[in-house]
Automatic annotation (TrEMBL):
This is Uncharacterized protein.
C-alpha cells in the first residue's frame, strides 16, 4: 500500500461534507452539486492518493469549466458558480454519481 500524504486523512472531512450536502440539501441536483463542489474543491489534489487524482480532476474540470467574469455578476463570482449556472440536471446527475464514487474510493483508501 502506498504512503498517504500527511494531510490526506484531514482533508477527507471536505469530502464527507460534500456528500452530506449532496444528499441532504433541499434543492435541485444542480444547486446541490454546486454547494457540494464548493466544499470538495477545498481539497488540494496533491494530498490525494494517485489513483484518486484523475477522478478528482475530472470532477474539478466539470465544476469549473467556465471562467467567471466578476464584473458581470458581482466581485466575488467564482468559476464554480459561473459553470453551475450553465449546467443542467441531465449532466449534473451523472456527475453527482461520480462525486459519490470518488467519496467511496477516498474512504476506502484511508482504511
Amino acid at each position: 500500500m502506498a504512503q498517504l500524504h500527511p494531510n490526506c486523512r484531514y482533508m477527507f472531512k471536505h469530502a464527507m461534507k460534500a456528500i452530506e450536502i449532496l444528499i441532504t440539501y433541499p434543492c435541485g441536483i444542480v444547486e446541490r452539486l454546486k454547494h457540494s463542489g464548493e466544499e470538495l474543491l477545498l481539497i488540494p489534489i496533491e494530498v490525494l492518493p494517485e489513483d484518486l487524482q484523475c477522478p478528482y480532476l475530472e470532477i474539478k474540470i466539470y465544476l469549473t469549466k467556465y471562467k467567471a467574469k466578476p464584473e458581470a455578476r458581482f466581485p466575488y463570482d467564482t468559476d464554480l458558480r459561473e459553470t453551475m449556472r450553465r449546467r443542467r440536471a441531465q449532466t449534473a446527475a451523472p456527475m453527482a454519481q461520480k462525486v459519490w464514487s470518488f467519496y467511496k474510493q477516498y474512504e476506502n483508501s484511508l482504511k
